[in-house]
Amino acid sequence: MKDLQFDTKAIREGYRITQEQEHSEAIFMTSSFTFDSAEQAANRFSKEEPGNIYARFTNPTVDAFERKLAALEGADACVATSSGMAAIFATIMALLKSGDHIVASRNMFGTSIVLLNTIVSKFNIGVSYVDLSDLSQWQGAVKDNTKLFLLETPSNPLGEVVDIAALSKISQANNILLAVDNAILTPALQNPINLGADIVIHSATKYIDGQGRCLAGAVLGNEAIIEQVASFTRATGPSLSAFNAWIVLKGLDTLSLRMKAHCDNALKLAIWLQDQDRVEKVYYLGLESHPDHGLAKIQQSDFGGIVSFEVKGGREAAFKVINATEIISITANLGDTKSTITHPASTTHGRLTDDEKQQANITEGLIRISVGLEAVGDLINDINKGL
Ligand SMILES: *Cc1c(COP(=O)(O)O)cnc(C)c1O
Predict the structure, then answer these.
(1) With 80 as the cut, is the pLDDT of residue 1 above it?
(2) Is the CB of 83 within 6 Å of ligand 1?
């Protein structure tokens, strides 16, 4: 279905109807599959005949999610995983070996940094961190043994952006794989593969489910890359369950509509915040005041659902705003129909030293909102209570 538009693919791609002729996708809750004969079993195991064997390898509901997401990302292949972290770990373990080196953006998702520093480091894989937007730092960090560039764009919570196409020129010239975690924008708003990335990683837990119901992840790329990642997940077991695959599969149906609504609400909230006396600074890529607005406008089709702002009065004032909310949930999660509010300096970025926080602009007055799908007027009133 190559010529169809995104919204059509999101609804129609992926699922292969069974002989029961069901209209909505079935959930195949089965750990294993049977064979017509000993010969068929032998042929399946030797891969002479394609087909299901065991749910750690393949499952029809999981396959449907993989095919649909691959179509939306413009990737040849996809392997689904039990979570976003499983996707990142599988990518690294499948494609790198002891002695290799990764260059990663400093402001990635907190657990991604923990994974690199505490688990991946045990396998003698080194990591250098760079500022996301600064191409010269990426170039400067390349060593003879560098095999992977790993990043998220835009970053969370401040929305820094890197020029993916320009970075891919550096990675290609040095024979390095470029992997982009696309959880914050999703394929509805950004297609890293079309911009030159080799690998896209997802936490489908966020906007792809979009309703806070389950964990899921995925890795996408060409057939050769995904075969390596899939052989890692087949052998180590972080496969996506059929039930969770069905949830995120149905999430993709409405992804584009939901992302439009998240972006609309976020922009309206950001514009309102800009005019508030008690607000020192607003970080939203859709505002012209954001330093990366121009690049985001070219590279993304919209600006996403994360709005951050700094209140005057430091931690005390920020906590007051957070505690005064009655609708918005106090939680560090994001990408949900429900809006969430968090204080990065004491939660998601609490592990950073004071110096690191200052360098990264994670101030004590900073508040992050993952803007949900409630009426934006109600969200504004809720935030206004503590301002
Ligand atoms: C949440 C998140 C992850 C981790 O995903 P899980 O599904 O929670 O394991 C990775 N990257 C980004 C950008 C995230 O927001």
Answers:
(1) no
(2) yes
